[in-house]
Amino acid sequence: MSSNSADRRTQAQTSVIVTVTICFVVIALLLTGLMAHVVVTMTRSANKIDDARAGHAAQIALAAFASRLSATVTDNAVWDEAYEAVGSVAAEDWAYDNWGSTSKDYALYDGAILTGPTGTIVSAYRKGEPFEPRAYFGEAFNRQIQTAGKPGQSPLLSFFKTEDGVALVGSEAVQPYHTSASVSRFSVLTFYKLLTPEVIATLSSEHGLDGLRLQDGPPPGLLNTPVKDMNGTVMAYLAWPSAAPGSVVFNEVYPYVASAAAILVVFLGGVLFVGASEARRLHRLAETARFQANHDSLSGLLNRHGLLDFLERSEPSASSMLSLYLIDLDGFKAVNDAWGHAVGDALIRLFAKALPACHPEIVAAARLGGDEFAMVQVGPAPHGEIERAILALLVEPFKIDDRTIEVGASIGTAVRTDDIASLELLRRADMALYRAKENGKGQAVQYDLELDRERQHIAELEGKLRSAISTGLIEPAFQPLVSAATGEIIGVEALARWPSPAGNISPEIFIPLAEKSGLIDALGVHMLRTSVRHAKDWSGLALSVNVSPIQLCNPDFAAQVIAVLKEFDFDPSRLTLEITESVLMTSPDQARRSIDHLKCSGIKFALDDFGCGYASIGALRQFGFDRMKIDRSLVSGVENAVNGIEVLRATISLATALDIPVTAEGIENARQAAILRETGCDQLQGYLVGKPMSARDISIRLLHEASAA
Predict the structure, then answer these.
(1) CA-CA distance, 320 to 541, in Å (whole number)?
(2) How many Å apart are CA 313 and CA 174, to the nearest integer?
(3) 3-class secondary-structure state, position 245
(4) What angle do CA 263, 267, 272 make, to 5 degrees?
(5) How much is the mean pLDDT over the chain?
(6) For residue 704, with 0-12 CB atoms within 10 Å meaning exposed, 13-18 middle and 19 or more buried, which class applies?
(7) Which one, of 327, 341, 344, lies nearest residue 392 by Cα?
(8) Residue 458, φ and ψ in degrees, nearest 5
(9) Can you give the three-state secondary structure of 50-83, one letter per residue?
(10) Is 602 left (phi over 0), alpha (psi -120 to 50) or beta?
(11) String of DSSP letters for 302-342
């Protein structure tokens, strides 16, 4: 049996070596073929690119040749002196002296023709000798002259086939610099230049076209560009041989390519020598990488990818259902903050070690990140039994480096059915876990469709809230703030109200929703702008507006408030922003920056709901509040609690010692108002002194108070 095992191992190794050898031979052949293909492609591409360049250069050469003749014609045709001369009786002599005689040995043209406005030949000289242009150029010459004689035309350039070869003919009306609009036709000056071998040689030199020549027909094996007459008919070809730079370079590098191929063969032999051992090493590395890709490095459990892969490969049976549990450790952040991440990591490893063994039906466990874990159960055990088994792991504290660590757990559960994908199962369990954490620590929640319906309802309500903010449906109601001494209104607090067909939606619902959905900044600015717009006309009346902690932590908050006040020209000293104690605990630095910025503008700040949170005396001093609003629970406590009045008096005494005026809210009867006046409150708020009312009702009440005074 041992021998058979050795044979199998040998055969396996031999198979690997043969496979690797074949693979490398194939690769070598492919590389050789690719290299040859690349070289050939580069050679052809270089040739093609240079041929295209040469073709473009030939076209430029013809254009340059035509441009020179065009400029020469224009220089001589658009000339006041020429215009006067050709209209005189001495036109023929003048044309000869200036153009005809020059054609004998002039480099820019070989012949000059002057025709009158009716097309008659006034003067025609070729190489200094008179000639008949219509016989020389053919009937097409008449068309050229007829077209060129119109005023305002640019030089008309056309190639003609003549007895001396191909000639470029340029014609333009003889006209002064400033043409009269009443002239319908002019005399026409025509220059022509033959494409002689000397001209072709010059074009070849100027444009880098070695071997350039003019041929009647398309030359085989040569590059060419056609020369066309005014009808578009090809009359000749400019031809030149391809420089084929790619082929030249290939011939130069061929020895190096051959050497590279030889080196490749030698290298292939060396690679084959170590092929078998390398294949085994790569296999081990692949297994390690596969494990690391699917497992968490800290706990050794599956990671999210590994969990999803496991769920994809697992199918529930009719006799045993599959359930997914998500576990979040309660209090883990406090452990990290108190003892450091090393202790937190040790706690993760201890819990991860115990989790898979907490129940026999647990078939997989995973760490999804941070302090969130997952378990997969396959079996008939009820959920309550599995959840109790998980929580039992946390009954006894963990001992880590002589430290006693206590944590709890929140659990979300989802059951898999045949039509639920792995990601959907994970989403459902995550929703259940989120609800469990909302319900409080140590809770377990199983997913049901109601969670999705609630989420859909929240999403719909969020959409309605967004629309209500943008359309201005949410309006402020104003609750009076009255003087404790006189009972007169000295200010109002703006309270957000959202009416709907089914009744008003409570701020306790839509304000937390705005904070969670990121709409609180938009809602806050809308409420501030609307409240300031109404309060602007209430002369001398202070305005209080509630501010969410999330708003105050926005670096742009101060600028937004100042912008609204400038928009309505509202006195900043009339505005008081009310904030709760929670912002002093969560983001004190950003809160203080915003408060300091706004206080510099004259805006006041009030600490709202004092007495129900954790604000310290140091925080009250540090933030420099202009007013303290004691919570309604302290107000109602003067009647319900045995020591309620003493607690209230101590709270107001604290504010008095800090030189902070006090507003009492939630006053519902005269006895509460009397006690609060006696204990030192200077401002009262509540249903006794005024319910929240519309801006119109506030205006009416102010009017009544003014008339009564």
Answers:
(1) 71
(2) 92
(3) helix
(4) 150
(5) 84
(6) exposed
(7) 327
(8) -65, -40
(9) HHHHHHHHHHHHHHHHHHHHHHHHHHHHECHHHH
(10) left
(11) B-HHHHHHHHHH----SSS-EEEEEEEEETHHHHHHHH-HH
- CA 395/CA 12 separation, integer angstroms: 53
Place of tokens 């912008």: 563
The predicted pLDDT at position 4 comes to: 43
Select from 564, 560, 563 the least CA-distant residue to 550: 560
Structure tokens at 666: 């939630």
Q: What are 279-334's pLDDT values in tens digits?
A: 566 566 767 777 888 888 888 899 999 988 888 887 656 556 888 999 999 888 88
Return d(Cα 515, Cα 530) in angstroms, integer. Answer: 20
| Spacing of C-alpha 578 from chain mean position | 37
Q: How far apart are CA 418 and CA 416, in angstroms?
A: 7
What letter would DSSP give residue 578? E
Tokens, residue 567: 């928009």
Consecutive H or E run containing 190: strand 188-194
| Strands 372-378 vs 322-330: parallel, antiparallel or unpaired | antiparallel
Instruction: Label residue 473 exposed, middle or buried (CB < 10 Å: 0-12, 13-18, 19+).
Output: middle
* Segments of 388-449 assigned E as strands: 398-400, 403-405, 408-416, 444-446
Q: Strand, coil or helix: what is 156?
A: strand
How remote is the C-alpha of 438 from its chain's centroid? Answer: 34
Answer yes or no: are the C-beta atoms of 498 and 510 closer than 8 Å.
yes
The predicted pLDDT at position 249 comes to 77
Q: Give the helix ranges, DSSP H, for 116-244.
A: 133-137, 140-148, 197-207
Q: What is the number of other CB atoms lying within 10 angstroms of the CB of residue 282? A: 10
Q: In terms of C-beta distances under 8 Å and separation of at least 24 residues, what long-range contacts does 312-317 make, across chains too?
A: 312/422, 314/363, 314/376, 314/378, 316/378, 316/416, 316/417, 316/418
Write out pLDDT tens, residues 179-200.
Answer: 665 677 889 999 999 999 999 9
Please report, for residues 126, 155, 192, the alpha-carbon distance to residue 94 in angstroms, rounded to integers and kept in the order given.
16, 21, 19
SS3 at position 570: coil
Q: Sheet harboring 156-162: ordered strands across? A: 129-130, 121-126, 111-115, 188-194, 165-173, 156-162
Query: What span, in angstroms and rounded, lies between the C-alpha atoms of 124 and 114?
Result: 6
225 CB burial (10 A radius; 0-12, 13-18, 19+)? middle
- CA distances to 415, 613, 621, 673 from 652, rounded to whole Å, are 56, 16, 15, 14
The token pair at 694 is 């519309």
Enclosing H/E stretch for 114: strand 111-115
The answer to whether the beta carbons of residues 237 and 224 sit under 8 Å apart is yes
The candidate with the shortest Cα–Cα distance to 400, out of 473, 448, 330, 351, is 351
Residue type, 70: S
pTM of the model: 0.52
d(CA 333, CA 314): 33
Q: Of 660, 679, 680, whose CA–CA distance to 606 is shortest? A: 660
In Å, the largest CA–CA distance within the chain is 135
**β-strand 121-126 against 129-130: which pairing, if any?**
antiparallel
Distance of alpha carbon 548 from alpha carbon 561, whole angstroms: 13
Would you state the structure tokens that stand for residue 121, as one six-digit string? Answer: 């030949």
Q: Measure the CA–CA gap between 370 and 455, rounded to whole angstroms.
A: 25
Locate 185 and state its tokens: 């036709």
